[in-house]
Amino acid sequence: MKILVTGFDPFGGESVNAASETVRRLPDAIAGAEIIRLEIPTVRYRSLQVIEEAICRHDPDVILSIGQAAGRADITVERIGINVDDYSIPDNEGNQVTDQPVIADGPDAYLVKVPVRAMVERIRSRSIPASISNSAGTFVCNHVIYGVCHLIATKYPGRQSGFLHIPCLPRQALGKGNMPSMSQEMMTEALKAAIEAIAEEKQNF
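The structure corresponding to this sequence follows.
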């Protein structure tokens, strides 16, 4: 089994992104699954193009994307992506759209096809705060959740996709008041736990 794990590059004026920093620290194999690490651009449509290129190159069974959610204090496993791009800040190529669809004529929403609750429970079993999220916002993270689900539904059947939001790193929270953060080691362990839950579910079918 192959799991493609993606993490966004820095955006919004930050020099680092907790997502890509954490993804690159994952081992090459977790629970018997081969891990393929990929940094993706925080850019409307280009993010999906890079992921699709990797799907064609590596033929993964699962695509798990990781995003940074400043202000969230725990690991949040996303359940749904909606067909809306509505950016409060520009992406890394200056796109700042309002009330636009991710995919024209696509369905209103997609539920992810990974074991969301089992992932949360496995993360919590490592004494790491985690919860299910029913809103990934309307920036590029949601764009990727919805877009990858649409790719699977229309072009790459039989695969699964999911998305985790992680907090900022402690060094990103410096000087930002009460900004929540989580250590690099804890977030890496959380991703490993979530991937274990995915791998075990796939092995049971």
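The first helix runs from residue 18 to 23.
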